[in-house]
């Protein structure tokens, strides 16, 4: 299993507004190896909201195929368009990991 986490810092109060955009579904669900998306709101930040958008893939190659897909381009096309509103996004960092041990109940 391969997990990619996009840690996004946003202005206070925006995480809960933005979270549904990541879990509304779409073409990503049709891609080989896609398993799920989870959006977490981190509890310990006071001045801003921090979200972890976790995407779960069978393999790293499945994730890389997503990055090159039309589905990825469509999901991110709104970002490139300029807007008169200031973006609530303060910054982000992407973390990629292979799952090497799991305990399920």
TrEMBL record:
The reaction(s) this protein catalyses: heme b + 5 AH2 + 4 O2 + 2 H(+) = beta-staphylobilin + Fe(2+) + formaldehyde + 5 A + 4 H2O; heme b + 5 AH2 + 4 O2 + 2 H(+) = delta-staphylobilin + Fe(2+) + formaldehyde + 5 A + 4 H2O
Binding positions for Fe cation per the UniProt entry: 6
Protein location: Cytoplasm
Gene Ontology MF terms in the entry: heme binding; heme oxygenase (decyclizing) activity; iron ion binding
Biological process terms in GO annotation: heme catabolic process; iron import into cell
Domain ABM: start-end pairs: 2-95
Residues involved in heme binding: 76
Keywords assigned: Cytoplasm, Heme, Iron, Metal-binding, Monooxygenase, Oxidoreductase
Site (Transition state stabilizer) location in chain: 66
Gene3D superfamilies: 3.30.70.100
GO cellular component, one term: cytoplasm
UniProt keyword Nucleotidyltransferase present: no
Enzyme class: oxidoreductase
Protein EC: 1.14.99.48
Domain of life of the source: Bacteria
RNA-binding keyword on record: no
Record text on subunit structure and interactions: Homodimer.
Function according to Swiss-Prot or TrEMBL: Allows bacterial pathogens to use the host heme as an iron source. Catalyzes the oxidative degradation of the heme macrocyclic porphyrin ring to the oxo-bilirubin chromophore staphylobilin (a mixture of the linear tetrapyrroles 5-oxo-delta-bilirubin and 15-oxo-beta-bilirubin) in the presence of a suitable electron donor such as ascorbate or NADPH--cytochrome P450 reductase, with subsequent release of free iron.
Family statement drawn from the similarity comment of this UniProt entry: Belongs to the TRAP family. Belongs to the antibiotic biosynthesis monooxygenase family. Heme-degrading monooxygenase IsdG subfamily.
Name of the featured protein: Heme oxygenase (staphylobilin-producing)
Organism: Staphylococcus shinii
């Amino acid at each position: 299993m391969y997990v990619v986490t996009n840690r996004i810092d946003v202005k206070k109060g925006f995480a809960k507004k933005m979270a549904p955009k990541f879990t509304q579904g779409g073409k990503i669900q049709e891609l080989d190896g896609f398993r799920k998306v989870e959006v977490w709101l981190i509890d310990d930040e006071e001045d801003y909201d921090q979200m972890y958008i976790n995407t779960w893939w069978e393999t790293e190659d499945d994730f890389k195929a997503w990055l090159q897909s039309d589905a990825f381009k469509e999901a991110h096309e709104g970002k490139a368009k300029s807007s008169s509103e200031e973006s609530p996004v303060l910054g982000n960092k992407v973390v990629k990991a292979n799952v090497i041990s799991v305990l399920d109940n």
